[in-house]
Design brief:
By secondary structure, the protein is mainly beta. The chain has four helices and 34 strands. It binds 2-acetamido-2-deoxy-beta-D-glucopyranose (NAG) (9 copies). One 2-acetamido-2-deoxy-beta-D-glucopyranose binds at residues 87, 105, 109.
Length: 450
C-alpha cells in the first residue's frame, strides 16, 4: 500500500479514535486553536500513561477538566477548573484567540484560563508522558505555562514540592475545589515538609538528612534512591522524586486526602486498585505536637504520651485524662539557671527519635555540638546527624516521637541529679558529665545501651 494514501486517512481518523478508545490505538496528545477538546473527549500522552479530559467526581454530575492516569479506575491527578465546575456536558478545552488554554462552557463563557498576559500568540497545549500539561509557543517552542507549576492534590514524579509549589486537598471527595489542607516545603532553618490545616501545622516530616527526611520512620528502608532536595538551603529549594529501577515497576504518586493525610500509592501491572504504600498519618503520634512541649509520643505504649526525663505534666489532672495539649515542664531548675550552681547539667541520650521542630543549625563538629549546647543555658537539646550536622534546640521541645527504628539520637539537657536515675520510658542512655567530656575531648566513645 502506498504511504501517501494512508496518511491522510489516519489524520482524519485520529481525532475520532482519540475520543472513543482507551489504550492501544494511536492518539493525539495536543490541543490547538483548530483542534479543541470537547466533552467527553480525551487526549493521551505519547505512551498512553496519562489522559486529559472531562470527568465527574463521585456523587455529582458537575464536570471538570482534569489529568488522569490512563487506567481502568478513575484517578485524577490534576484539575483545571477546580472551583468553577461545568454543570452540563457542553464544555470545551481549547486555545483562545489570545493564546491561553481555556475551559469554556456551552455559552462560550470562560470558566478557567491559564491567564498568560502576553497575548495573541499561536500556542499548543501538549500532555507529556510525565503527566505535565504544557502550553508552548508554536513558533519558538518555548513553554509559557505548565500544570506542574500549579498542582492540585497530587504529587507526581518530577514535580516540585516547594515553598510556593504546594498541594491543596480537595474540599470533599465530590468537590475538587480547595479544601483546608495543604502540603509544601519550608526551607529554614532546615528543609522540612509540612501539612497545614489552614494555617495550623498538622504534620511535619522532620529535617532533610541528605537522602531522606529523618522524621519519617522507614523512609530509608524503601525506595532509598529517587528522593532529592534540589537547591537545599535556599528559598527556592524543592523536593522531588524519580522512580528508579530499584522500585518495583508501576505507577507511584502521592495524594493529599480531604482529611489531610499524604498518601503514597502504587499501581503495578495488572492491578485493579491503588495500594497504599505509605501514609503520613500512621498513628496518633503523627499529629503535630500531640504530646505538647517536652512530651514524647510512642504509638506502642497504651498511654502514647510521656514526659521527657526530668519533666512532669504541666497539668497533671488533664494529662491523666489523656489530654496532652499542655505538655510537660521541668521538675527542677537546671543547674545553669541557678546562681549557686553545684555540679553541671548533663544530657540523656534518646535513640531512634523524631527530633523536635525548630532546630537551629550550628557549625560545630560532632564532638563539639554537645559542648556548645552545654555552654548555653537556653540550649535544651542537641543532635548531630551526618548529612545535616549539629542541631540545637532552645526552650520548648515539640513534636517528638519515639520510633522503633531509624530516626536520630537526641540529647536532652537535664539537671545533674537526674542523670543517675533509671529511666524506663524511652530507650535512653545516660550520658553523665564524665562520659560527656570523654566524648567531647578525646576519641568518640560508643555509649552502650542500658
Ligand atoms: C499534535 O499531535 C499530532 C498527532 O501526534 C501531530 O501530528 C501534530 O503535529 C501535533 N501538533 C502540534 C502543533 O504539535
Ligand atoms: C456517594 O453517595 C453514596 C450514597 O449516598 C455514599 O454511600 C457514598 O459514600 C458517597 N461517595 C462519596 C465519595 O461521597
Ligand atoms: C448552568 O450554568 C449556566 C452558566 O454557566 C447557567 O446559565 C445555567 O442556568 C446552568 N444550568 C443549570 C441546570 O444549573
Ligand atoms: C462558541 O464558539 C465556537 C467557536 O468559535 C462557535 O462555533 C460556537 O458557535 C460558539 N457557541 C456559542 C453558543 O456562541
Ligand atoms: C485568571 O484570572 C481571573 C481574573 O483575574 C481569576 O479570577 C482566575 O482565578 C485566574 N485563573 C487562574 C487559573 O489563575
Ligand atoms: C474547613 O474548616 C472549617 C472549620 O475550621 C470548616 O467550617 C469548613 O467546613 C472546612 N472546609 C472544608 C472544605 O472542609
Ligand atoms: C486522592 O484524594 C482524593 C481526595 O481525598 C480522593 O478522592 C481520591 O480518591 C484520591 N485518589 C486516589 C487514587 O486514591
Ligand atoms: C484539652 O484541654 C484544652 C485546654 O484545657 C481544651 O481546649 C481541649 O479541648 C482539650 N482537648 C481534648 C481533646 O479534650
Ligand atoms: C544561646 O542560644 C541562643 C539560642 O540559640 C542564642 O540566641 C544565644 O545567642 C546563645 N548565647 C550565646 C552566649 O551563645
Amino acid at each position: 500500500m502506498e504511504r501517501a494514501k494512508v496518511l491522510p486517512l489516519l489524520h482524519f481518523l485520529v481525532p475520532i479514535l482519540a475520543c472513543y478508545c482507551v489504550g492501544i490505538c494511536m492518539a493525539i496528545d495536543n490541543i490547538t486553536i483548530t483542534q479543541p477538546l470537547r466533552d467527553p473527549g480525551n487526549i493521551f500522552s505519547s505512551s498512553q500513561t496519562f489522559k486529559l479530559g472531562f470527568f465527574s467526581p463521585q456523587n455529582t454530575s458537575n464536570r471538570y477538566v482534569g489529568i488522569m492516569y490512563n487506567i481502568p479506575l478513575m484517578t485524577v491527578v490534576w484539575v483545571a477548573n477546580r472551583d468553577k465546575p461545568l454543570n452540563d456536558s457542553a464544555g470545551t478545552l481549547t486555545i483562545s484567540g489570545d493564546g491561553n488554554l481555556v475551559v469554556l462552557n456551552g455559552k462560550n463563557e470562560t470558566l478557567w484560563s491559564t491567564n498568560i498576559s502576553d497575548s495573541a500568540r499561536t500556542r499548543t497545549a501538549q500532555l507529556l508522558d510525565t503527566g505535565n500539561l504544557v502550553l508552548k509557543d508554536s513558533s519558538s517552542g518555548m513553554t509559557v505555562w505548565e500544570s506542574f507549576q500549579f498542582p492540585t492534590d497530587s504529587f507526581l514524579q518530577k514535580m516540585k514540592l516547594g515553598t510556593t509549589e504546594k498541594l491543596t486537598s480537595w474540599a470533599t471527595s465530590s468537590n475538587p475545589s480547595p479544601g483546608n489542607f495543604s502540603v509544601g516545603l519550608q526551607t529554614l532553618p532546615t528543609a522540612q515538609i509540612f501539612i497545614w490545616n489552614q494555617n495550623k501545622v498538622h504534620w511535619r516530616s522532620g529535617p532533610w538528612g541528605g537522602n531522606v527526611f529523618i522524621g519519617i520512620q522507614n523512609m530509608d528502608s524503601a525506595y532509598l534512591n529517587g528522593y532529592d532536595l534540589v537547591d537545599g538551603g535556599s528559598e527556592s529549594a524543592y523536593f522531588t522524586y524519580t522512580i528508579s529501577n530499584d522500585w518495583p515497576p508501576g505507577h507511584y504518586f502521592y495524594n493529599l486526602t480531604v482529611t489531610g493525610v499524604l498518601m503514597e500509592q502504587y499501581w503495578g501491572e495488572g492491578s485493579s486498585s491503588w495500594q497504599v504504600t505509605w501514609l503520613s498519618m500512621e498513628s496518633q503520634c503523627d499529629t503535630y505536637g500531640k504530646c505538647g512541649a517536652f512530651g514524647s509520643c510512642n504509638p506502642q505504649n497504651t498511654a502514647i504520651c510521656t514526659c521527657l526525663k526530668g519533666f512532669e505534666p504541666s497539668d497533671r489532672e488533664e494529662w491523666d485524662r489523656g489530654n496532652w495539649t499542655h505538655g510537660c515542664r521541668r521538675k527542677t531548675l537546671l543547674q545553669c539557671e541557678r546562681s549557686n550552681s553545684a555540679g553541671q547539667d548533663g544530657f540523656i541520650k534518646l535513640q531512634n527519635m523524631k527530633v523536635p521542630d525548630f532546630a537551629e543549625l550550628k557549625s560545630a563538629s560532632a564532638q563539639f555540638c554537645g559542648e556548645l549546647c552545654l555552654r548555653n543555658c537556653s540550649c535544651s537539646a542537641y543532635s548531630y546527624y551526618t548529612g545535616i550536622g549539629c542541631m540545637h534546640w532552645s526552650d520548648s521541645l515539640v513534636d517528638i516521637q519515639q520510633f522503633s527504628e531509624g530516626g536520630a539520637d537526641l540529647y536532652v539537657r537535664v539537671v545533674h541529679s537526674e542523670l543517675g536515675k533509671t529511666f524506663l520510658q524511652h530507650k535512653s542512655i545516660i550520658v553523665p558529665l564524665f562520659n560527656f567530656f570523654r566524648m567531647t575531648f578525646s576519641q568518640p566513645i560508643s555509649v552502650k545501651s542500658l
